[in-house]
Amino acid sequence: RVRVRGLSIFRPIIYGNTATALTEKERQTLSHADHTHRWTVAVRSAASAPNSDIVGGADDISHFIKRVTFKLHDTYANPSRNVDKPPFEISETGWGEFEIQIRITFVPESGEKAMTLYHHLKLHPWAAAGEPEIPPLEVAIKHGPVHSWQYDEVVFNDPFQNFLNILTAH
Ligand code: SLL
């Protein structure tokens, strides 16, 4: 196992969530009558796919990410959710915002330790001065989906030669 000393290589990622308010009708079909939103938390590539305007397309992070563990709030059944292949995401319904721990495990060839990120699940749009922090259902539905994403870069220092080959082949 040979390291390429002095080299740093990074891969851009985004992590975060989208959330949509459930209509009264949708709420009636759920087993949890108190749930107000459907949301998806994800880790994606921040590099656009070639010839595409879409960020996070394809499975262009699975060659270096082996597993993403999303640790949800304890009010959820089985709060620790493992995702072993793309898309690295979890969709749920719920009523409240909370901090999600996102643990990224890299492929064994990398020799890297896991990396932990934190994301505050955002369900409600930013309120203007004088507006309620949690808008009424009709207002939330009219507003449309809420997006909350953060950019980060995964940095590999002195990478193993074979891992570097894997990274640069993609
Ligand atoms: C709060 N600190 O009090 C937060 C906790 C918990 C959110 C929010 C679903 C739970 C379930 C859910 O939305 N939990 O019924 O499975 O606002």
The count of β-strands is 8
Order of helices and strands: EHEEEEEEHEH
How much helical structure, as a percent, in the residues?
10-25%
What proportion of the residues form beta strands (DSSP E)?
Answer: 35-45%
Rounded average pLDDT: 93
Dominant shape: elongated
Trace the largest sheet across and list its strands: 5-2-1-8
Give the radius of gyration. Answer: 19 Å
Number of helices in the DSSP assignment: 3
Structural class by SSE content: mainly beta
- CA(first)-CA(last) distance: 21 Å
Low-pLDDT parts are: none
What characterizes the major β-sheet? 4 strands, antiparallel
Ligands in the structure?
ligand SLL
Seen as an oligomer or otherwise, the chain set is single chain
Keywords: Activator, Chromatin regulator, Coiled coil, Cytoplasm, DNA damage, DNA repair, Nucleus, Transcription, Transcription regulation
Family: Belongs to the YAF9 family.
Protein name: Protein AF-9 homolog
Subunit structure: Component of the SWR1 chromatin-remodeling complex and of the NuA4 histone acetyltransferase complex.
Blueprint of the fold:
Layout: E1 8-21, H1 24-29, E2 37-45, E3 65-71, E4 80-83, E5 88-94, E6 99-106, E7 115-120, H2 137-143, E8 146-157, H3 161-168
This protein binds ligand SLL.
Ligand SLL is lined by residues 32, 73, 75-76, 94-98.
Main location: nucleus
Keywords: Activator, Chromatin regulator, Coiled coil, Cytoplasm, DNA damage, DNA repair, Nucleus, Transcription, Transcription regulation
Domain YEATS: 3-170
Task: Name some characteristics of this structure.
170 residues; mainly beta; four-stranded antiparallel beta sheet; 3 helices; 8 strands; 12% helix; 39% strand; binds ligand SLL; activator; transcription
